[in-house]
């Protein structure tokens, strides 16, 4: 055997040996598990990982959105004859677009029928904030959002937790009600402290404004009715507190032409008006569904409110979107109620603030010993026992992503100031000064300054901002089980 043949032979043997060694050292791949196993593995990992509410996060399964607990054995019995209470919070509702406030007849025909037969409306209700997060906190706590940690003093997006104050659901649960909630808005989710006090609660998807993650009003109603229909006898033995939030009118939204064709002649905002009609239709389905389960206007207090309004460029200096200016289009809100014990067709005169909603609702429902509110109990005016609300002024501000403005409202005037906005807006028409609400409801021309009002505005703004900054530095409270 010559040298060339020997070299080839030894080379071949060496390659075979190396191949055998590599084959031995390389682990044998496991066969692909069946689909059910893959799903189980994914779910197992998901259960060990806290979900993140980032805009890019995926949809969560219903099992991750629903929070439930047993009624504690020591929960007190509700007062004899206590009513059920249903609170619906709709986002981005421009008040004068509702038919019950002079808008097109087709927007809220069902709500209008309920008020005419057995309900009331507040004639001049005002939000305390013109973006959803702080307004949500004001509604459910009856406090300024600055006082419950729901203000973001910096220019970043506000997702701060509501803390240091009882929510409506907590007050009703502690007083003997069975509590159910469905959120279509991440501003009402457990992550931001808004699920406390609920025996059963369904969160929205993270960053719920994205089209593909939305829960529309009809779906929210269906979730609520399904849960209420599944109550145990022990749960049915208690009056119900139900809370829903809707976001159908908050951009971005999709409305097919078939829905907004009835509004095509309405000031160029037909799709927006169609979203209000959707909410009205959902309210009708909710009332009918509850009635089928024995929850009717005869034994139930229904409350429908908004977090804030919308500019719609009507007029143009009100801007298209909320959050930036403090004109009536964004600050004025609908607040209507009907049902148990309320007079029919009453319009309640006088100012009302968003922080008045919670104390008024608990009073109308008969809860005793309730305190810790910044707002006023307006139940006497609602029931016709007082001629008007008795409120002399209301405060509203915005600290929305670098905008920093505040306003004070009376029956006659609104005065406003910019307190150092860092976000510069294109075509910004905001001006420090005062407006006559009676003669100039669109705020087109300033009037002479009102020194006392401007001084009160500055005083209230400074005190609230100081509290907001204090809470922004403190560790945020966490709900029990938050990290599970």
What do you see in this structure?
The chain has 484 residues and is of the alpha/beta class. The protein has a domain at 83-391: Alkaline Phosphatase, subunit A (3-Layer(aba) Sandwich), CATH 3.40.720. The protein is built from 14 helices and 14 strands. Strands 1, 2, 3, 4, 5, 6, 7, 8, 9 and 10 form a ten-stranded mixed sheet that branches. The protein has a four-stranded antiparallel sheet with strand order 11-12-13-14, with helices on one face. Helix 7 packs parallel to helix 10. The protein starts with a helix and ends in an 11-residue tail after the last helix.
Features:
ten-stranded mixed sheet, 16% strand, alpha/beta, disordered C terminus, 484 residues, Alkaline Phosphatase, subunit A, four-stranded antiparallel sheet
Task: Write the topology of this structure.
Layout: H1 3-25, H2 35-48, H3 62-65, E1 66-68, E2 84-90, H4 109-118, E3 119-126, H5 132-141, H6 168-174, E4 178-183, E5 200-202, H7 217-229, H8 233-236, E6 240-246, H9 257-260, H10 270-291, E7 300-306, H11 328-331, E8 332-333, E9 335-339, E10 346-353, H12 357-364, H13 379-382, E11 394-398, E12 405-409, E13 413-418, E14 433-436, H14 451-473
Parallel strand pairs: 2-6, 2-7, 3-10, 4-5, 4-6
Antiparallel strand pairs: 1-5, 3-8, 3-9, 7-9, 11-12, 12-13, 13-14
């Amino acid at each position: 055997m010559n040298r060339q043949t020997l070299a080839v032979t030894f080379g071949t043997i060496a390659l075979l040996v190396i191949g055998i060694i590599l084959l031995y050292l390389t682990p044998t791949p496991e066969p692909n598990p069946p689909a059910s196993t893959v799903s189980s593995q994914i779910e197992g990992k998901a259960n060990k990982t806290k979900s993140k509410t980032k805009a890019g996060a995926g949809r969560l399964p219903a099992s991750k959105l629903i929070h439930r607990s047993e009624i504690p054995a020591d929960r007190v019995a509700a007062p004899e004859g206590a009513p059920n209470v249903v609170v619906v919070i709709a986002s981005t509702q421009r008040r004068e677009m509702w038919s019950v406030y002079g808008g097109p007849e087709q927007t809220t025909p069902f709500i209008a029928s309920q008020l005419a037969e057995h309900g009331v409306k507040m004639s001049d209700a005002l939000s305390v904030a013109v973006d959803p997060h702080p307004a949500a906190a004001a509604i459910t706590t009856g406090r300024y959002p600055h006082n419950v940690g729901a203000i973001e003093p910096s220019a970043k997006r506000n997702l701060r937790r509501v803390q240091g104050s009882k929510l409506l659901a907590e007050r009703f649960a502690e007083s003997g009600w069975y509590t159910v909630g469905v959120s279509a808005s991440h501003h009402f989710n457990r992550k931001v402290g808004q699920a406390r006090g609920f025996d059963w609660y369904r969160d929205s998807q993270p960053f719920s404004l994205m089209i593909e993650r939305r829960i529309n009003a009809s779906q929210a109603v269906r979730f609520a009715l399904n849960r209420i229909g599944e109550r145990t006898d022990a749960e049915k033995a208690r009056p119900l507190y139900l809370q829903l939030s809707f976001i159908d009118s908050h951009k971005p939204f999709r409305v097919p032409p078939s829905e907004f064709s009835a509004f095509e002649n309405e000031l160029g905002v037909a799709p927006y008006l169609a979203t209000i009609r959707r909410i009205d239709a959902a309210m009708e389905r909710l009332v009918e569904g509850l009635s089928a389960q024995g929850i009717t206007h005869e034994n139930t207090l229904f409350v429908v409110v908004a977090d804030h309004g919308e500019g719609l460029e009507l007029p143009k200096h009100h801007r298209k979107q909320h959050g930036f200016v403090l004109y009536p289009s964004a600050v004025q809100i609908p607040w209507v109620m009907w049902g148990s014990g309320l007079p029919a067709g009453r319009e309640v005169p006088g100012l009302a603030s968003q922080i008045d909603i919670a104390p008024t609702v608990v009073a109308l429902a008969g809860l005793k010993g309730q305190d810790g509110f910044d707002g006023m109990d307006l139940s006497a005016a609602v029931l016709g026992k007082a001629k008007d609300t008795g409120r002399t002024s209301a405060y509203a501000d915005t600290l929305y992503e670098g905008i920093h403005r505040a306003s004070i409202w009376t029956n006659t005037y609104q005065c406003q100031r910019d307190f150092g906005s860092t976000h510069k807006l294109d075509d910004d028409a905001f001006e420090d000064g005062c407006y006559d609400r009676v003669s100039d409801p669109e705020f087109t021309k300033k009037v002479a300054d009102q020194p006392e009002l401007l001084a009160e505005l500055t005083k209230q703004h400074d005190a609230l901002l100081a509290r907001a900054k204090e809470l922004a530095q403190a560790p945020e409270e966490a709900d029990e089980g938050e990290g599970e």
